[in-house]
């Protein structure tokens, strides 16, 4: 059955034209998924426009969390950052005045990223201020497993925007019904969907890929896994995939504290087998992956939270993948934190890096959408 909502990437691959000024507002913490997604929106647009990023955070301790590992995408973003970043006030009155400041000069496009479940009350003020300044307004609403009918919870905030992009067709349908006939154009875009990940396994299953006969990395992985409290271990399972020769690797596993929950696999896998391994893993880790790493590429294609285990915390993979984390393979504590962080994200299916380029193209195209009647749905 043909949907009344257009999947945004259907029109997003046309050539980008240059925008002059864009303001992007949203969560900013680079240790949280909402903040990372805001950064990817900014990062995708900076090649085509002068971008001002406005950080709107729900609390003063938005960046805290020693239990969170360093993000891969944030590592690259810090190298490439070309957008000016400004922080918005927490108090509503100050925030409204603050928003006006970013629209003193002509702004063609204003983009707000909403994460259902945190405070999104600022979006209405942001949209109102942008429209008064003559900017085209777009609200991005992330669909995630615990968002429920999250799009409808902020319907009032997005009602006056020109375009709303959501991650799920159900959210789009319910949001349109909530807003009624006077509504913005509503579309579905895959960059905003974190749903669809289901391992079908109650265990927290961690799969790690190590280079052949890399005993030092194996010991680091085992030490990190042994740090899991004994009262919790029945909920965990570790698969180590490493080609090995001799008995040393098997002896290391046998000597580990949680050996009964560790499986050492030494054979090669076909592409079909690799896809199955990734599909039934709660989280993945790969030691020093190259650009052509089959294990890492398969994990990204499946949208699985994946830790890159790197020496000296340096790697060339992970650009644009918000499901990527970074750990020092030589420090078991770093590995333990990153693995636990990845396992907490096991319900999320992360968008591919290519999705952000498609989103940037759609946002660029939004400048031409004034010809559309905002009370009508664009058809497929």
Descriptive notes:
This protein is α/β, with parallel strands linked by helices and 380 residues long. It folds into two domains: 6-194 and 352-371, 3-Layer(aba) Sandwich (Rossmann fold), CATH 3.40.50.2000; 204-344, 3-Layer(aba) Sandwich (Rossmann fold). Helices cover 33% and strands 19% of the residues. It contains 13 helices and 15 strands. The chain has helices at 33-45, 72-80, 92-101, 122-132, 150-153, 155-158, 169-179, 215-226, 248-255, 271-279, 294-302, 332-344, 353-365, and strands at 6-7, 21-26, 50-55, 70-71, 84-87, 109-114, 136-141, 163-166, 185-188, 204-209, 236-241, 262-265, 283-287, 306-310, 324-328. The strands form two sheets. An eight-stranded parallel β-sheet has the order 1-9-8-7-6-2-3-5, with helices on both faces. It has a seven-stranded mixed β-sheet with strand order 4-15-14-13-10-11-12, sandwiched between helices. Strand 11, helix 9 and strand 12 form a beta-alpha-beta unit. The longest helix has 13 residues, at 33-45.
Query: Regarding CATH, which class of the largest domain?
Result: Alpha Beta
Q: Which architecture name of the largest domain does CATH use?
A: 3-Layer(aba) Sandwich
What is the multimeric organization of the chains shown?
A: single chain
- Class from secondary-structure proportions: alpha/beta
Q: Return the string of H and E elements.
A: EEHEEHEHEHEHHEHEEHEHEHEHEEHH
Question: Which sequence of strands runs across the widest sheet?
Answer: 1-9-8-7-6-2-3-5
**How many distinct beta strands?**
15
Largest sheet: 8 strands, parallel
Low-confidence segments: 9-15, 370-380
């Amino acid at each position: 059955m043909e949907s009344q909502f257009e999947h945004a990437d259907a029109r997003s691959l046309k050539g980008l034209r240059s925008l002059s000024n864009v303001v992007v507002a949203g969560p900013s913490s680079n240790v949280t998924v909402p903040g990372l997604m805001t950064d990817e929106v900014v990062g995708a647009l900076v090649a085509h426009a002068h971008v001002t990023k406005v950080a709107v955070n729900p609390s003063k301790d938005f960046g805290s969390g020693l239990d969170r590992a360093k993000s891969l995408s944030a590592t690259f973003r810090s190298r490439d950052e070309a957008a000016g970043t400004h922080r918005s006030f927490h108090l509503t009155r100050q925030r409204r005045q603050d928003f006006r400041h970013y629209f003193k000069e002509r702004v063609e496009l204003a983009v707000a990223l909403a994460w259902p479940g945190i405070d999104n009350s600022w979006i209405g003020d942001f949209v109102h201020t942008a429209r008064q300044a003559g900017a085209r307004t777009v609200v991005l609403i992330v669909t995630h497993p615990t968002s429920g009918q999250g799009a409808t919870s902020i319907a009032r905030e997005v009602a006056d925007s020109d375009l709303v992009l959501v991650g799920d067709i159900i959210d789009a349908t319910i949001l349109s019904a909530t807003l009624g006939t006077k509504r913005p154009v509503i579309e579905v875009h895959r960059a905003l969907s974190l749903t669809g990940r289901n391992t079908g396994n109650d265990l927290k299953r961690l799969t790690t890929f190590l280079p052949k006969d890399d005993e030092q990395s194996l010991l680091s992985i085992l030490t990190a896994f042994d740090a899991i409290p004994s009262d919790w271990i029945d909920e965990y399972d570790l698969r180590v995939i490493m080609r090995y020769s001799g008995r040393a690797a098997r002896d290391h596993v046998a000597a580990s504290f949680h050996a009964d929950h560790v499986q050492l696999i030494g054979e090669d896998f076909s592409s079909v087998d690799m896809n199955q391994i990734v599909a039934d893993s709660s989280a993945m880790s790969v030691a020093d992956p190259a650009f052509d790493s089959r294990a890492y590429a398969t994990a990204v294609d499946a949208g699985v939270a994946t830790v890159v285990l790197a020496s000296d915390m340096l790697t060339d993979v992970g650009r644009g993948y918000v499901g990527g984390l970074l750990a020092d393979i030589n420090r078991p504590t770093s590995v333990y934190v990153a693995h636990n962080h990845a396992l907490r994200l096991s319900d999320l299916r992360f968008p591919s890096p290519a999705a952000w380029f498609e989103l940037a193209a759609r946002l660029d195209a939004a400048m031409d959408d004034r010809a559309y009647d905002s009370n009508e749905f664009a058809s497929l």
